[in-house]
Automatic annotation (TrEMBL):
This is Uncharacterized protein. Residues 1-25 form the signal peptide. It holds the Pfam family DUF538. PANTHER family: F22D16.19 PROTEIN, T31J12.3 PROTEIN-RELATED. Keywords: Signal. SUPFAM superfamilies: At5g01610-like. The keyword RNA-binding does not apply. InterPro entries: At5g01610-like, DUF538.
Length: 168
């Protein structure tokens, strides 16, 4: 390989090694959870279920969160949520966009949640053609795969407050 070729490879590799990607092992070896990371963008930790095994977040807000397999649960029996093993999107202050890997069952259809925005004490979830806003109080606890919030606090059922706004 020529000297110019070696220099080009070194420059290319140094670009990758200094890219601003955060992960659970970032911050000088200190572990920082994905739940801490989403709170930095003004979102509650309960947007993601318990059990995220890792995540990546770059300087442009592109993220990936990893679960150990898919995760499905019901909330108060009226909403069924499904998280794929990899969830991706773009996160910025008060906005999650281009979201993939999260879907909700509405009546008999599974719809992908494509965007989540925070406005004051409300979170608005968009499936593209419709959206619904919920109080942020519903998302202070992380749901658990299989049982949602029903398995929190010794089996007590915590009811989710119904949507404040809904549009088609």
């Amino acid at each position: 390989m020529s000297r110019t070729g070696i220099i080009a490879v070194i420059v290319l590799l140094s670009t990758f090694s200094t890219s601003p990607t955060l992960s659970a092992a970032a911050n000088g070896g200190e572990s920082r959870s994905v739940y801490d990371a989403i709170e930095d963008f003004n979102f509650p930790m309960g947007l993601l279920p318990k059990g995220v095994t890792g995540y990546e977040l770059d300087g442009n807000g592109k993220f990936r969160a990893y679960l150990n397999g898919s995760c499905r649960f019901s909330l108060e029996g009226s909403y069924q949520l499904n998280y794929k093993s990899t969830i991706t999107g773009t996160i910025s202050q008060n906005k999650l966009s281009s979201l993939t890997g999260v879907s909700v069952k509405v009546l008999f259809l599974w719809l992908n949640i494509v965007e989540v925005t925070r406005s004051g004490d409300n979170l608005e979830f968009s499936v593209g053609i419709a959206s619904a806003a919920f109080s942020i109080d519903n998302f202070y606890e992380c749901p658990q795969c299989g049982c949602g919030l029903d398995c929190v606090n010794g089996g007590q059922v915590r009811k989710i407050k119904m949507p404040l706004v809904s549009s088609i």
